C-alpha cells in the first residue's frame, strides 16, 4: 500500500506506490484536509478547485478540535493520477492547511454518508418502499398518509443503491450529507 502525507507543500512518496502518475485513467479519491478553523479557509480550498476546473463529488467540513481551532475538510474528487497529485500539492501550499491525507492510497478506510429520502406513494408502492427500507435498515423519520421520509446511513454506494430503488416508487426529494471518512487502524 502507498502512503502519502503532505505538510504545507512538502511531499513524501512511498517506494511501493506503483501507480503511473501519467495515466489517463480517471480515479476517485477521498482527501482529508486538516485546516485552521478560521473565516475564509473553506473558500480558499474551494477556490483552488473551481479556479482550476477540478470537480468535487462530495464535501464535508466540521470543527474537530475546539481548543486547537482545527477543522477537517473531507473532499471526494476525481481526476487522473497526475491531477490528483497536483490537487494534493496545491492544497498543501495553502497557508492555513496543516495536513493533506489521500485516504484512497493510505490504506483501508471507513466511509459513511447520511441521506434523507422523501418518498410519496400509496398502496403497493408504499408497502414496497417500506419493505426495501427495512432491508436497507433505513429509519422512518417522518410519515404522512401519502409520504415517508427515510434516513439511511452507509457507504455512498449503499445510499445510491437505495436511491435507485426508491425512484420508481415515488422518490420526491433527496438530501445527502457527503462522505465522512477515516483511515482504519491506529494511523491518523
TrEMBL record:
GO cellular component, one term: cytosol
EC number(s) reported in the record: 2.2.1.6
Pfam families the UniProt entry points to: ACT_AHAS_ss, ALS_ss_C
Pathway connected to this protein: Amino-acid biosynthesis; L-valine biosynthesis; L-valine from pyruvate: step 1/4; Amino-acid biosynthesis; L-isoleucine biosynthesis; L-isoleucine from 2-oxobutanoate: step 1/4
Keyword Iron-sulfur: no
Keywords: Amino-acid biosynthesis, Branched-chain amino acid biosynthesis, Transferase
Database matches in InterPro entries: Acetalactate_synth_ssu, Acetolactate_synth/TF_NikR_C, Acetolactate_synth_ssu_C, ACT-like_dom_sf, ACT_dom, AHAS_ACT, AHAS_small-like_ACT
A GO molecular-function annotation: acetolactate synthase regulator activity
Catalyzed chemical reaction(s): 2 pyruvate + H(+) = (2S)-2-acetolactate + CO2
Positions of the ACT domain: 30-105
GO BP term (any one): isoleucine biosynthetic process
Assembly and interaction partners: Dimer of large and small chains.
Stated family: Belongs to the acetolactate synthase small subunit family.
Protein purpose: Catalyzes the conversion of 2 pyruvate molecules into acetolactate in the first common step of the biosynthetic pathway of the branched-amino acids such as leucine, isoleucine, and valine.
Protein's UniProt name: Acetolactate synthase small subunit
Amino acid at each position: 500500500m502507498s502512503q502519502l502525507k503532505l505538510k504545507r507543500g512538502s511531499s513524501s512518496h512511498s517506494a511501493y506506490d506503483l501507480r503511473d502518475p501519467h495515466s489517463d485513467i480517471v480515479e476517485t479519491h477521498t482527501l482529508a484536509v486538516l485546516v485552521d478553523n478560521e473565516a475564509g479557509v473553506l473558500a480558499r480550498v474551494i477556490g483552488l478547485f473551481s479556479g482550476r476546473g477540478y470537480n468535487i463529488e462530495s464535501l464535508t467540513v466540521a470543527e474537530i478540535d475546539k481548543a486547537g481551532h482545527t477543522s477537517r475538510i473531507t473532499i471526494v474528487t476525481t481526476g487522473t493520477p497526475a491531477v490528483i497529485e497536483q490537487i494534493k500539492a496545491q492544497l498543501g501550499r495553502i497557508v492555513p492547511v496543516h495536513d493533506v491525507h489521500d485516504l484512497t492510497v493510505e490504506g483501508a478506510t471507513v466511509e459513511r454518508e447520511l441521506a434523507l429520502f422523501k418518498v410519496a406513494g400509496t398502496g403497493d408502492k408504499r408497502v414496497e418502499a417500506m419493505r426495501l427500507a427495512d432491508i436497507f435498515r433505513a429509519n422512518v423519520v417522518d410519515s404522512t398518509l401519502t409520504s415517508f421520509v427515510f434516513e439511511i446511513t452507509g457507504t455512498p454506494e449503499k445510499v445510491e443503491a437505495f436511491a435507485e430503488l426508491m425512484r420508481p416508487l415515488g422518490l420526491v426529494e433527496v438530501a445527502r450529507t457527503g462522505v465522512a471518512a477515516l483511515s482504519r487502524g491506529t494511523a491518523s
